[in-house]
Request: fold
Amino acid sequence: MATEVNEANFEEIVLKSDKPVLVDFWAEWCGPCRLIAPIVEEMSSEFAGKAVIVKLDVDNNNSISAKYGIRNIPTILFFKNGQVADKQVGAVAKSSLVNKLKALL
Reply:
């Protein structure tokens, strides 16, 4: 299951990770976010041990959302070595997210 991150643990889990990290910026009220939630969960299992898959609720973590310029959700940021390496805005097919993450492995 994808880990929930917040302002207290974002740096430790995402920025200091030695593996690529997929961060799903979402909100409870967001329809497209609910569409990709099962994909993010599947990827969490499929990439266990190879990548870190996390979710961040934008309503409860405004400072992180602002820092990374999140204006539309769902937005998925891909981090490598503490830096944003790729980005996907909007609901997309699983293959698109898988390909972006595999490119960082």
